[in-house]
TrEMBL record:
Pfam families: PGK. It comes from the Bacteria. The keyword S-adenosyl-L-methionine does not apply. It catalyses: (2R)-3-phosphoglycerate + ATP = (2R)-3-phospho-glyceroyl phosphate + ADP. Its EC number is 2.7.2.3. Belongs to the phosphoglycerate kinase family. GO terms for molecular function: ADP binding; ATP binding; phosphoglycerate kinase activity. PANTHER family: PHOSPHOGLYCERATE KINASE, PHOSPHOGLYCERATE KINASE 1, CHLOROPLASTIC-RELATED. Monomer. (2R)-3-phosphoglycerate binds at residues 35, 117, 173. This is Phosphoglycerate kinase. It is found in: Cytoplasm.
Length: 420
């Protein structure tokens, strides 16, 4: 497989698919440029070689063609600051105007194309269908956009000599620029960017190349959204800590009182099934034993600690308690591979961050002692950033959905397109 390090971009045009889907405020100013910074090593390598960088990305979720708030023009100035050189922009991503801009490129130039998703063909999903469209109309529209997607992809590919995918955040999508485009490049001319390489390696470390004991900490709100991952992890981990709002569905399923705590009534059997499977597979499934409970879903609510199965009516568990913290931290500190996805409680409220902080700190300590730790999925990334632990874990993934699908054991189209 070709690697970016082995490729000499001198005099070559590279189409680099990045994930510049950054948050913008109401004045269209970038509020968090993490994703842009993450792609800089790849862009800089191409520039240093004397190549020409053609940047493709999506921004937001445009559903009806061009809109100013979704224009990639909004990020050009900041990219220029980050790179310390001028950056060109063209207000389309295919067609004559773009071809002309590309033809003018000189070695070391950087050109940003307009939002790829201004075309329905990027995602390959029909747009503008009437709400009362029949199934036949829907099928016909789908077929039409899939057809025109081929032409769109071909045009994008024709802009460059090489294809570099550095957009892990969209690697789980089989879109034109993230996957389909790779077919138009010979194996020696397509490769991952540095960010993708790091993400793929980090995922492999927790999926294939596992140092044991392996502990996964799955938090967050709902069992239903994490069930596929949990089932896959049961085949891989030695310890599975299930925490956050999911806790109470398990507590209720086993006969505990959970007061007003979050609970998915229709997932009680599923919770019992997970407990049974964990036992059969010899996985140490760890649940909280105590909770920090509140008399309202609010940072200012009255709080106290109680056993997780004895939550009084009118109270709800919004974080784990001190005994659970100790149990979780002990398991974590004795691990050699760690995966963390999802907080132990409502970490957005300052008074319910303690459990998540303790978990983050235990992971940092284990990492210091030689464990490999991968933190991913929006909220746990927010947690490690909030607690200043981002550089104390082995790897913080930039992928939300993509990371979760990889952990579910799915083959990501963006990765397959390069790896074959
Ligand atoms: P998810 O998006 O599924 O990873 O869930 C993250 C969300 O779960 C965060 O917004 C947390 O506030 C929420 N959460 C964690 N623990 C609890 C809890 N005990 N009760 C309600 N929400 C929770």
């Amino acid at each position: 497989m070709q690697t970016i390090d082995n490729f000499n971009f001198a005099g070559k045009k590279a189409f680099v698919r990045v994930d510049f889907n950054v948050p913008l405020d109401e004045n269209l100013k970038i509020t968090d440029d993490t994703r842009m910074r993450a792609a800089l090593p790849t862009i800089k390598k191409i520039i240093a070689d004397g190549g020409m960088v053609i940047i493709g990305s999506h921004l937001g979720r445009p559903k009806k063609g061009p809109e100013k708030k979704f224009s990639l023009q909004n990020i050009v100035e900041h990219l220029s600051e980050l790179l310390g050189q001028p950056v060109k922009f063209v207000d389309d991503c295919i067609g004559e105007k773009v071809e002309a801009a590309v033809a003018e490129l000189q070695p070391k130039d950087v050109l940003v194309l307009e939002n790829l998703r201004f075309y329905a063909e990027e995602e390959g999903k029909p747009r503008g269908l009437a709400e009362d469209a029949t199934d036949e109309e829907k099928a016909a529209a789908k077929k039409a956009v899939k057809e025109s997607q081929k032409e769109f992809t071909k045009k994008l590919a024709s802009l460059a000599d090489a294809y570099v995918n550095d957009a892990f955040g969209t690697a789980h999508r089989a879109h034109a620029s993230t996957a389909l485009i790779a077919d138009y490049f010979a194996p020696e001319n397509k490769m991952f960017g540095y960010l993708m390489e790091k993400e793929v390696k980090a995922v492999e470390k927790v999926m294939k190349d596992i140092n044991r004991p392996f502990t996964a900490i799955m938090g967050g709100s709902k069992v239903s959204s994490k069930i596929d991952i949990i089932e896959n992890l049961l085949n891989k981990v030695d310890n599975l800590i299930i925490t956050g709002g999911m806790t109470y569905t398990f507590t209720k399923a086993t006969g505990g009182n959970i007061g007003n705590s979050l609970c998915e009534e229709d997932k009680l059997d599923l919770a019992l099934d997970i407990l049974k499977k964990a036992k059969e597979k010899g996985v140490n499934l760890v649940l909280a034993v105590d909770a920090k409970i509140a008399d309202a879903f609010s940072n200012d609510a009255n709080t106290k600690f109680c056993p997780v199965s004895q939550i009084p009516d009118g109270w709800e568990g919004l974080d784990i308690g001190p005994e659970s913290e100790k149990i979780f931290a002990d398991v974590i500190k004795n691990s050699k591979t760690l995966l963390w996805n999802g907080p132990t409680g409502v970490f957005e409220f300052e008074n319910f961050t303690h459990g998540s902080r303790t978990v983050g700190e235990a992971i940092a300590e284990a990492t210091k002692a030689g464990a490999f730790s991968l933190v991913g999925g929006g909220d746990s990334v927010a947690c490690v950033n909030k607690f200043g632990l981002a550089d104390k874990v082995s790897y913080v993934s930039t992928g939300g959905g993509a990371l979760l699908e990889a952990i579910e054991g799915k083959v990501l189209p963006g990765i397959k397109a390069i790896q074959g």
